[in-house]
Amino acid sequence: MPRRSSKATIAEVAQRAGVSPATVSRVFNARFVGRSDVAERVRTAAAELAYTPSHLARSLALGQTEAVAFLVPDLANPAFQTILSAMSKTAARDGYRVLVADSAESPDDEPLLASQTRRRCDAIVLCAPRMAKEKLLALADQLRPLVLINRPDPGFAVPSLSIDYRSGIARLAEHLHQLGHRRLVYLGGPPNSVSDHHRRQGLTDFERRHGDVVIDRLAAGAAIEDGLALAGTVRNSGATAALAFNDLVAIGLLNGLGRLGLTVPDDISVAGFDDIPFASFTTPPLTTASVPHAELGAAAWRRLCQTLRGQPADGDELFPTRLELRASTGPLPS
Amino acid sequence: MPRRSSKATIAEVAQRAGVSPATVSRVFNARFVGRSDVAERVRTAAAELAYTPSHLARSLALGQTEAVAFLVPDLANPAFQTILSAMSKTAARDGYRVLVADSAESPDDEPLLASQTRRRCDAIVLCAPRMAKEKLLALADQLRPLVLINRPDPGFAVPSLSIDYRSGIARLAEHLHQLGHRRLVYLGGPPNSVSDHHRRQGLTDFERRHGDVVIDRLAAGAAIEDGLALAGTVRNSGATAALAFNDLVAIGLLNGLGRLGLTVPDDISVAGFDDIPFASFTTPPLTTASVPHAELGAAAWRRLCQTLRGQPADGDELFPTRLELRASTGPLPS
DNA sequence: TCAATTTATGAAACCGCTTTCTCAGCCGGG
DNA sequence: CCCGGCTGAGAAAGCGGTTTCATAAATTGA
Q: Looking at beta carbons, which residues of chain B come within 8 Å of A50?
């Protein structure tokens, strides 16, 4: 009887079955072509020893771990959770697992965190909206295979998946404009956020089309508290409608305004961005630009998978958003 | 010039520095005690070759991967997200990464998914509220080191971390009782859920203390839709207050009741469970039992870490909940 | 000054699996 | 009947590190 405590190795199975380790390996990897009684003997021996191949050793020999990493700035954000969830499920179908890393919104730690995490797996999906471009460029090579989220930039020879924030927010603004709003306020995202920059570009596009509109830009952030904190400022801004960086900020704002005694949308309209699962359950339900996060997660895995298999990877992809008109936006207060 | 494409190995660094691989290994692991110029030569050579030790090879030699797994029934649930987030951050501080696996609420797939995932890392945290006890028992041994969440059961010689759902829901019921409610309805969780069972026990405890109370038990589920779907049933039940399996169900119910024209808490009180981040931002803000998910996540890592280091692991832990009284519960309608 | 230690470094085994290469043994054909 | 071509299975060389053990050099003490 072999030592009970430790796991059985391929050599032990081989010995017990009276064959070589090579044969055991072949049986377990469906590369075995010999007599079927030999295969049966191997399987029996393996079962008796409760043998499980060491994934680690296998990975080393094969040169691949069957795991990929996903680095996000904040795992607490439902948007990233949806991406993660979809990516994890899709990858699991191909036998891959995903390793998560949360940079806790601190761009300075991201390079180290990313490269450390990347070393343990075959590829990485990087969502680093605030990392400086030059740092990202320097990193890109050592991280490859790599897929970037929301960093559409021809400077990197890296497939990227991005949300069309620019036109999405412009369409939200158009919607407000049609409702009669002329004074808007934008609650911006975290400093240096690339995706915030895209939204601001969208707002500028919108302004160019409508000379009669004024948009106030505020610095908020990405969390509920950021929206909550700015409720007073928004009220005093004179704007009749607010566009938030994302749904979290919008939800915070919605609550803050409520606490100030304002009614949405009668006193002021509020729109978010992302369409997180809760957006339809706020009071009033939140008008927002719906982002296909699950599709994004699945697409991220597809890209990685192509690269890992040596297939030519699809190019950059820009995901459109869908306007989700709900009750938090309404006609201009009379 | 060595082949550019592939990564440098320890042997190449050794050759370039004119030392043996053993020395390079020692330098990189701070076990080096020799002349400092030798160490410097090694570091220079490594830098020139952009050498990064293969985590895989290191893991194989060391017998540990510095990764742990986390298996959840549904990654889309904010409660699990918070646990994951906390666990991931805590583990990262010790250089560990976490591997996620989502069983998509299908208990049948869990054993396979768990053991496959477990093989790739050093330990696993299992949250499988619906897996049959005998299956779990059979699994436990091959999964060890293992920490169970919400499966406090002396049958397993496995550390477990659990939420005190039983007394938590009883206290919520007490709260409603004090407000004058005598007819309650409970929107139960998924079938065979252990944590649902605990909640039901808590309700029974409560009933025993108060002969004047009637509690209707409904089968709901764990998601927003489940609460939403039952709004009509709840209204027709004649109950003046509803206790939901969790906040998601409560939020769904809140919305469903609103659509039916009922006002919470004037017409009916609603309480949730978990205190997910959104619970304080619903309308009205949700009364709930606050669960320390982040602490739970951190504690899970601590347990694993102790076991991995061979220290005696702390025993089972039962996390108390904190009553979070908000505006969704109010006095009995007059 | 020389033996006894201590110290810095390298050779080699090992972690557990995959895979190439090699070689018996068996087949049929001439 | 003998030989070349197949075939099934094993030996061994990796994968890229770590670590034990041995050894040559340096240090110490008498």
A: 142
- Of A302-306, B137-141, B167-171, which gets the smallest average pLDDT? B137-141
Distance CA A206, CA A185 (A): 13
Give the pLDDT score at A115. Answer: 95
**Backbone angles phi and psi of A67, in degrees to 5:** -145, 150
Q: Which nucleotides of D are covered by protein (CB under 7 A)?
A: 7-12, 14-20
pLDDT at B1: 35
Residue carrying the six token digits 């009205």: B284
Question: Of B50, B104, B120, which is closest to A89 when you measure between CB atoms?
Answer: B104
Can you spell out the DSSP letters for A103-167?
-TT-TTTHHHHHHHHHTTSSEEEE--TTS-HHHHHHHHHHH-SEEEES---TTS-S-EEEE-HHH
Predicted TM-score of the model (pTM):
0.94
DSSP element (H, E) containing A249: helix A247-259
Half-sphere exposure of B246 (CA within 13 A, CB side): 23
User: Which one, of B46, B37, B36, B39, lies nearest residue B15 by Cα?
Assistant: B46
Contact (CB, 8 A) for A253 and A244: yes
Closest-CA distance of chain B to residue A110, Å: 13
Q: CA-to-CA distance for A169 and A166, rounded, in angstroms?
A: 6
Tokens of B221: 């589920």
Residue A17 CA to residue B282 CA, distance in Å, equals 63
Sign for the pseudo-dihedral over CA of A261, A265, A269, A274: positive
A224 touches chain B (CB under 8 A): yes
Contact B88 A98 (CB under 8 A): no
Q: Could you tell me the fold of the domain covering A165-291? A: Rossmann fold (3.40.50)
The answer on pLDDT for B5 being more than 90 is no
- Residue B263, min C-alpha distance to chain A (Å): 13
CATH number of B67-163+293-321: 3.40.50.2300
State how far the Cα of A221 lies from the Cα of A227, in Å rounded to an integer. 8
* DSSP code of residue A334: -
Residues with Cβ within 8 Å of residue A21, at least 6 apart in sequence: A10, A11, A13, A14
Closest among A190, A125, A197 to A159, alpha carbons compared = A125
How many angstroms separate the Cα of A70 from the Cα of each of A88, B52, B77?
Answer: 9, 20, 19
- Note whether A67-163+293-321 and A165-291 share their fold: yes
Q: Which helix (H) or strand (E) holds A244?
A: strand A241-244
Which pLDDT value is given to residue A6?
62
Question: Are A60 and B55 inside 8 Å of each other by CB?
Answer: no
B281 and chain A in contact, CB less than 8 A: yes
List chain B domain ranges.
10-53, 67-163+293-321, 165-291
Please, what is the Cα angle at A267 between A261 and A272, to 5 degrees?
Answer: 95
Calpha distance B208→B56 (Å, rounded): 57
Rounded to whole angstroms, the Cα distance separating A142 from A165 reads: 29
**Cβ of residue A253 closer than 8 Å to a chain B Cβ:** no
**C-alpha distance from A46 to closest chain B C-alpha (Å):** 15
Question: Starting at the edge strand that comes first in sequence, how are the strands of the sheet with B317-319 ordered?
Answer: A317-319, A160-163, A146-149, A123-126, A67-72, A97-102, B97-102, B67-72, B123-126, B146-149, B160-163, B317-319
CA–CA distance, B2 with A243 (Å, rounded to integer): 55
Q: Mean pLDDT throughout B17-27? A: 96
Q: Which residues contact B95 (CB under 8 A, 6 or more apart)?
A: B66
Averages of pLDDT over each 10 residues, chain A, 334 residues = 63 95 95 89 96 96 97 94 96 96 90 95 96 91 93 82 98 98 98 96 98 97 97 97 98 97 97 97 96 98 93 89 98 87
